[in-house]
Amino acid sequence: MPRLKARLLPMLEAGVVPVVTGFLGATRSGETTTLGRGGSDYSAALIGAVLGAREVRLYTNVEGVLTANPDLIPHARTIPRLSVEEAMELSYLGAKKFHPRTFEPLKLNGVPIRILSFYNPEGSSTLVKGSCTEEDGVKAVVVVEGLALVRVKGPTMVGRIGTAAEVMSLAREARVNIGAISQPISETVISIIVKRADAPRLAELVEERLEPRVVESVEVEEPLSALVVVGCGLARTEMLSRVVSKLVGTKIYMAARGLEGASLTVLTDPSDAAALAEDIHDEVILGGQA
Q1: For the whole model, what pTM was predicted?
Q2: How many Cα atoms within 13 Å fall on the side-chain side of residue 214?
């Protein structure tokens, strides 16, 4: 960061606009590498924070972050403001896939990030600034498709220290990313959400390594979809109750809360997810005015 300041600040003071390739980086040993998808967004946020910029602007193909995927809900609208927590929850979920660490620099010195369209830069935009407040409501709903649930079951797991860690280790060995994990206090079932294509590989490895020594059976349930509702307002009981009331009569396989209670993820059947998303979007997010 000192080198960044030393090279860029004199240029800015001289009225020169520097252009920085944001997706490149280096390993600890000095080897050149890339930061992966969204690396330029993360680099821009870091540079803006280090230089004390008034605002960091990220350009995408839509006017800011929308309340829903317009392909699913055509009347989705631009969200005027997101808290840092809400933006981090949405990092991997929207049409624009932000690097998951894009919004971390905001916690360093509060430099806001504005997301706007390169097609219409004067149009609507989303400002990411500050943390959750009591006034925040529910901001967005997202449906993530192509998921599966891997259930590791058995009374032999009860009271056995390290079973969940062994399952996680096998997921790592199989190079399977875990979207979510849950276990009841009875310790009889470990439920894991993964991409549908990865489920057979993980289930096969768990069966091979842990059955019947540790687990009784391994089941895969597919296809499933995740309904994700995002908004700091979910931390309030009355707002959470409004969302949960929409789920009555729906088969729920798993539910989880996000950072600072700013999201609720529900795993359900694909046939239910889209209808639920539109209902929550119109009745809770837009207040019935869609």
Answers
A1: 0.86
A2: 19
Q: Please work out, in degrees rounded to the nearest 5, the angle formed at the alpha carbon of residue 202 by the alpha carbons of 262 and 216.
A: 100
Fold classified for 225-285: Alpha-Beta Plaits (3.30.70)
Q: Does domain 2-131 have CATH number 3.40.1160.10?
A: yes
| CATH (one of 2.160.10.10, 3.30.565.10, 3.30.70.100, 3.30.2130.10) for 147-221 | 3.30.2130.10
Q: Dihedral sign, CA of 150, 155, 156, 159?
A: positive
- 164-210, pLDDT tens digit by residue? 899 999 999 999 999 989 998 998 999 999 999 999 999 999 999 98
CB 115 within 8 A of CB 125: yes
- Kindly state the tokens that stand for 86: 């809400």
> Which tens digits make up the pLDDT trace of 87-118?
988 887 765 667 778 888 887 778 899 999 99
HEC-encoded secondary structure of 142-165? EEEEEEEEEEEECHHHCCCCCHHH
